[in-house]
């Protein structure tokens, strides 16, 4: 196993205000991990080259002009429970029928009402699954592996200079990494991690303001990676704008969870893109 830092020192060293949403989530995860069973050793073989999550994004981006990672979350720290009780199976079915390339499924229980069991239950839909959590320990990678996730989210704002070690630990468990940045100062950590999928979160997780990230500087820094725009996409047109602007994929959560017709929402994302991709 790779040498990973002590999760408590990682959480102490984020530099985020104690009251910030992200810091509160991390502290909560630390408490949950303290109660967890001993970390299981890797079972899957190590990952060499691209995995099924990346391949699905590349395939759908080539075929449709863009790929969507459709997120299942019932709550968030900033909004509280905005989609509590939304049936998992019906929502994921709508995502698949609407043309999603992959799922992002919240695993964090306290603030997002997520569960690793949701990832296990999503297996029947046959789309690759992102373990959407706040990874600070090997135990969470073990949880992601055991619930069948294909990929994990690694947040550079949290992991900083340890991002590469976490990406390697994930690979050793057969897990792909979506490495999430918030600004370009974080690029070197993702490069060191040899990130094949790079997400840029438009939501500043310290201030919660939404920015408008551009793909061009990321493309320069990661010529061969799949670029994913995350957060704050409220309409199908917003998603199309990002996909036309150089991102191969978008990650959409709240808007899909609030939509009365998530399948129709996704179909509208692809409607014009498909013609443009021809
Ligand atoms: O959204 C929050 O309140 C939050 C708080 C602390 C850490 C992360 C948080 N959100 C995670 C995300 O950024 C989103 O789940 C994801 O990118 C999807 O965004 P959206 O489409 O805006 O739901």
TrEMBL record:
Transmembrane segments: none annotated. The keyword Lyase applies. Its EC number is 4.1.1.48. Pathway: Amino-acid biosynthesis; L-tryptophan biosynthesis; L-tryptophan from chorismate: step 4/5. Residues 56-267 form the Indole-3-glycerol phosphate synthase domain. Keywords: Amino-acid biosynthesis, Aromatic amino acid biosynthesis, Decarboxylase, Lyase, Tryptophan biosynthesis. It holds the Pfam family IGPS. It catalyses: 1-(2-carboxyphenylamino)-1-deoxy-D-ribulose 5-phosphate + H(+) = (1S,2R)-1-C-(indol-3-yl)glycerol 3-phosphate + CO2 + H2O. It comes from the Bacteria. PROSITE patterns: IGPS (PS00614). PANTHER family: INDOLE-3-GLYCEROL-PHOSPHATE SYNTHASE, TRYPTOPHAN BIOSYNTHESIS PROTEIN. This is indole-3-glycerol-phosphate synthase. It comes from Geothrix edaphica.
């Amino acid at each position: 196993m790779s040498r990973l830092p002590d999760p408590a020192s990682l959480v102490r060293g984020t530099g985020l205000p104690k009251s910030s949403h992200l810091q509160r989530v991390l502290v909560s995860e630390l408490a949950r991990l303290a109660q967890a069973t001993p970390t299981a050793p890797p079972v899957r073989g190590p990952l060499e080259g691209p995995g099924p999550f990346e391949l699905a994004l590349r395939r759908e981006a080539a075929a449709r002009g863009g790929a969507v990672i459709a997120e299942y979350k019932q709550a968030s720290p900033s909004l509280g429970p905005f989609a509590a009780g939304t049936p998992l199976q019906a929502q994921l079915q709508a995502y698949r029928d609407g043309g999603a390339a992959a799922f992002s499924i919240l695993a964090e229980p306290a603030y997002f009402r997520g569960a690793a069991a949701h990832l296990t239950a999503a297996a029947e839909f046959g789309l690759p699954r992102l373990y959407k959590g706040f990874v600070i320990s090997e135990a969470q990678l073990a949880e992601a592996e055991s619930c069948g996730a294909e990929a994990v989210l690694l947040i550079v704002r949290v992991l900083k200079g340890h991002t590469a070690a976490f990406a390697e630990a994930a690979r050793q468990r057969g897990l792909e990494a979506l490495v999430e940045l918030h600004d370009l100062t974080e690029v070197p950590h993702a490069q060191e991690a040899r990130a094949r999928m790079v997400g840029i979160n438009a939501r500043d997780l310290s201030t919660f303001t939404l920015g408008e990230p551009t793909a061009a500087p990321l493309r320069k820094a990661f010529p061969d990676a799949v670029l994913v725009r995350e957060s704050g996409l409220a309409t199908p047109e917003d998603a199309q704008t990002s996909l036309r602007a150089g991102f191969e994929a978008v990650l959409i959560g709240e808007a899909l969870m609030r939509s009365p017709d998530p399948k129709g929402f996704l179909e509208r994302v692809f409607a014009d893109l498909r013609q443009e991709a021809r």
